[in-house]
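Journal club prep, shared notes

We agreed each person brings one worked example of a sequence with its structure written out as tokens. Mine is HTH luxR-type domain-containing protein. I'm keeping it raw so we can talk through how to read the token line rather than staring at a rendered picture. Sequence first:
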Amino acid sequence: MTQPDVGSNMPRGAHTVANAIKGLDCTAIVGLACAQAWMTVRWFPLMDDPSVQGEASEWLMALSCLIAMGTLVACAFLAKMIDDSVHGRTWKTIVLVWSLAGTLVVACGSMFSQAPAWILGAGVITGVGSGLLLLSWVVVCVRSGSVMNISLAFLLSSLLLSLVSEFSHFIESTPVVDVGLGVLLALTASLLLFAKKERGGRFENYSVKEINKSLYRFLVKLCIGAFLVGLANELVRFIYSGGPVLFFRGGSLYWIVVLVLAVVNLGIALQLRSRQSSGFYFICRGAIVLCVVSALLFPYVGASSSLLFSFNTSGRQCLQLLIWIIVFMLCQKHRLSPTSLFGATCSVWYFGSFVGILLHRMSIAFGLSSNGFAIEFVSVSAVLLLVLAFVFLFSERDSDFVFGRGGDSVVRTKAFRKGCDRLAREGHLTKRESEVLTLLAKGASVSHIEEKLFISSSTVATHMKHIYQKLNVHSRKELYDLVERSSEMYAIGSVDEIDSVTRVDNR
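Then the structure, token by token:
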């Protein structure tokens, strides 16, 4: 009988459409969507008062980005404690208070806009609120087990913002209406957290020394890419003369963003079905093209072009979504803490935005903001940053590593064998049990194991029972998942690196 193929028979439950649909969580989708929409809507009151616009609002947003970055970094360092408490009522109450306070303090801008104390206080409150709210929902979505929860949340968030955009054409925007929208979204996102119960497996908080060298290098590249995207995004936002918040409030072309994200969601569903990494790779390239083309054309078509800004926003949303998907995949495949990984990647994104705002303020201070050459220079700079981000974030090898089976077949086979050997050592399996484990992990049937090892079916059943007990699993699916996680740490490097890691394990 032909031996089953490792790659074709080992189930990839987290990467199939059936499992993705089964794991869909409407509460998580709506909660994360409302949290993302709130991140934009909370600034609307600033646009109702000319005294708050300009320098004061930009410094407020810069400080908010800096505080959000600091909040996420602190959460990353305290990941073990936060992962254990994120589903507790105390944590959810804290998130509710901070997010509501972040909405209301912005509404006070008309009274205290010129006071440095207000800018400082509002920056701290909005920064902490946004960091905690986003982090909470990302942890929920990662533990839900379906990447479609995140992608559909992005789509729903863009749909909500487009509805707000259309809504502003029929009802005059006033501070009361804007604050009401902000409070509604903050309350919805926060209260839905109380409806969530802990779901999914636990994730580990590895130290730097415990992370495979190739995985560590990829995490560094991921953070650099997130920083570059955040910086390029902020530069383009300030090229647009209408102002980003004004675009969200009155830009009927925001439906373009909804359409692009709908296509991306369809692409992700097809990707999950095909189990190939190329789908994500091409989605990324499409997002980069949208951002690059719109950034290059801004100086020539006109900085007030809402059409170009809508395409740029679509590309930025796609890039941010793909970064979050990478976080999801890494957490699922390597059992990394979502608090640690999201805290690190999102904090550098915020830092990129902070640097972008500072550069914009410096251009104004030196009188370069209205200079045609300066606008062209910023446009080209944004394009170069996006190209660099593409190199850091989405090389095809990295895409295979994160999304697909990827890699050379020799490396994959060797990684599978080493993963099984490691489980055999840790579970103190006998030699015969180790052989049965390897065949089970390949998807072999009981009859095939009988023929392969020349043993009876009752002996196979006994060995399977002992293996399940020693490895603390209760079904073959759980065994598949365990072997997959054990193999993945070896599957991301070269054959030589696999051998070196194995030698360390054997010490």
